[in-house]
Amino acid sequence: MKIYTRTGDTGGTALFGGGRVSKDHPRVEAYGDVDELNAALGLARAIELMPRVDEVLVPVQRDLFAIGALLATPDHAKMREQLQKARIDDERIAELERAIDDCEQELEPLRSFILPGGTPKSGALHVARTICRRAERRVVTLAQEVELPALVIQYLNRLSDLLFMLARVANRRAGAGEVTW
């Protein structure tokens, strides 16, 4: 099978379960930003191995792949299947919250805004956090047009908080200080 199909040469793309839309359709924008976030997390993982941080990110990347598939699925029955297959549920969101809580125990309380940066690992996690926020905005926009599971927005919201905390943890573990605003 060749990687190129030529079916998108006129600016359209196929959706899971059938149908075609323009490549700038809100659905494509949403799952494209989720895909970009996943790639940014892959880059963050590739920069300086940090076992506990990276162990949190691998399942998140799997979640994001499943969320992207869900967003690319216009059929509601298939969308529910994707959500169940992805294991994106209240318990998964609680797992993200527990990971945030674990980070908080390792860090000094935040007393002011901090500027993104520090180590390359932390910087990559901050970039991923901002991509996550954009993906969340795109999913909110899409949810105004089509019915989407609320858990997708909740997941992205919680994930951006987790990425912020992981960026702080990466700096702390590397001995890099935080620059306040």
TrEMBL record:
**Alphabetized GO MF terms:** ATP binding; corrinoid adenosyltransferase activity
Which top-rank group of organisms is this from? Bacteria
Query: Where is the protein localized?
Result: Cytoplasm
Q: Which key words are in the record?
A: ATP-binding, Cobalamin biosynthesis, Cytoplasm, Nucleotide-binding, Transferase
Biological or metabolic pathway of the protein: Cofactor biosynthesis; adenosylcobalamin biosynthesis; adenosylcobalamin from cob(II)yrinate a,c-diamide: step 2/7
- Indicate where this protein is primarily found: cytoplasm
Q: Which reaction does it catalyse?
A: 2 cob(II)yrinate a,c diamide + reduced [electron-transfer flavoprotein] + 2 ATP = 2 adenosylcob(III)yrinate a,c-diamide + 2 triphosphate + oxidized [electron-transfer flavoprotein] + 3 H(+); 2 cob(II)alamin + reduced [electron-transfer flavoprotein] + 2 ATP = 2 adenosylcob(III)alamin + 2 triphosphate + oxidized [electron-transfer flavoprotein] + 3 H(+)
Task: Identify the enzyme class.
Answer: transferase
The EC number(s) attached to this protein equal 2.5.1.17
The record's Pfam families line, in alphabetical order, gives: Cob_adeno_trans
Asked whether the keyword Nucleotide-binding is assigned, the reply is yes
Q: Which InterPro entries match?
A: CblAdoTrfase-like (IPR016030), CblAdoTrfase-like_sf (IPR036451), PduO-typ (IPR029499)
Residues in Cobalamin adenosyltransferase-like domain copies: 3-170
**A single GO cellular-component term on record:** cytoplasm
Q: Biological process (GO) annotations?
A: cobalamin biosynthetic process
Q: Which family does it belong to?
A: Belongs to the Cob(I)alamin adenosyltransferase family.
Q: What is this protein called?
A: Corrinoid adenosyltransferase
**What organism is listed for this UniProt entry?**
Roseisolibacter agri
